[in-house]
Write a structure and sequence with these properties.
Blueprint lengths: L1 E12 L1 H4 L5 H10 L7 E9 L4 E4 L15 H5 L1 E4 L6 H7 L7 E5 L5 H4 L9 E4 L1 H7 L1 H6 L12 E4 L14 E2 L6 E5 L8 E5 L4 E6 L5 H6 L9 H17 L2 E5 L5 H7 L6
Parallel strand pairs: 3-5, 5-6, 6-7, 11-12
Antiparallel strand pairs: 1-2, 1-4, 2-3, 8-9, 9-10, 10-11
The structure holds zinc ion (ZN).
Zinc ion binds next to loops.
Organism: Deinococcus metalli
Protein name: Glyoxylase-like metal-dependent hydrolase (Beta-lactamase superfamily II)
Pfam families: Lactamase_B
Length: about 270
């Protein structure tokens, strides 16, 4: 099994989104008042070459994101993208010799725009999403939260992840992605209430963490971001991932961590 980190361009967010400041409503308002931007952060997608077929975890950004015209204050004031057509998922898959039809499953950690914008490159492929995330993203409530269903394309075929009581470390529910059971989703709520991460089992386990935190440092310090609706839930998830990393060697790979790609190559585990 090979895992590729695919960089679908870069994103800048406010520092106080990357690492939340304060608590309660103040934490969530802060990014709008914060004049300081992060450096350009990668937006990664993951391609797993598995004997049962290719699995793509998150689909990254699309070049349209850079010119998005949106009324939503988050899109207008709090995020900037640098994405060209060649940065999108499709060209990366072609460079790896992978056709859309080779993709057995797409798994989305959540439906924020920089995770789902590459979906049109995998039109019609079965796409696994947490049922609650699908519900949250639709309708007016979804739009108010900044979800952009229009970008997923008309051939978006979402299927709800199927949860089982099979445990994985401190996680009491898992959703198998492969028959072999060596790729599975775990619930990592916080950044969104139904956010999931994907585990690839191996000599060391790889955790494709989506936005469970923006960096490994934030995992280690237990610092919640500036957008998670429920700070306690997000903090509990980070604590659970740290327990997991204590039980077994674990490589932790957030979507926007500048060091994720290098940690994947070096199989660099979470330090204890
Ligand atoms: Zn997100």
């Amino acid at each position: 099994m090979r895992i590729h980190a695919v960089r679908t361009g870069f994103v800048q967010i406010k520092r106080s989104q990357q690492l939340g400041v304060g608590h309660g409503l103040a934490r969530r308002v802060r990014p709008f008042l914060d004049p300081t931007w992060t450096e350009w952060l990668p937006t990664l997608a993951w391609v797993i070459e598995h004997p049962e077929g290719v699995i793509v975890v998150d689909t990254g950004s699309a070049s349209g994101d850079a010119h998005l015209r949106s009324w939503h204050p988050y899109h207008r004031f709090d995020v900037r993208f640098q994405v060209g057509p060649q940065d999108e998922l499709g060209p990366h898959l072609r460079a790896l010799g992978i056709e859309a039809r080779d993709v057995a499953n797409v798994v989305l950690t959540h439906l924020h725009m920089d995770h789902g914008a590459g979906l049109p490159h995998l039109a019609g492929r079965p796409t696994l999403v947490h049922e609650g995330e699908l519900r949250a993203a639709h309708g007016l409530a979804g739009r108010l939260q900044g979800y952009l269903p229009g970008q997923w394309g008309p051939a978006f075929r979402p299927h709800a992840l199927t949860w089982t009581d099979a445990r994985f470390g401190p996680f009491d529910r898992t959703a198998p992605i492969t028959q072999a059971g060596d790729v599975l989703a775990i619930p990592t709520p916080g950044h969104t209430p139904h956010h999931v991460s994907v585990v690839v089992r191996g000599d060391v386990d790889i955790l494709l963490a989506g936005d469970a935190s923006y960096t490994q440092d934030a995992l280690l310090t237990g610092q919640v971001d500036g957008v998670s609706p429920d700070e306690g839930q997000a903090r509990a998830t980070l604590a659970r991932i740290r327990v997991l990393a204590h039980e077994r060697p674990l490589v932790y790979l957030p979507t926007h961590d500048p060091d994720s790609a290098a940690r994947l190559l070096g199989k660099t585990v979470v330090p204890q």
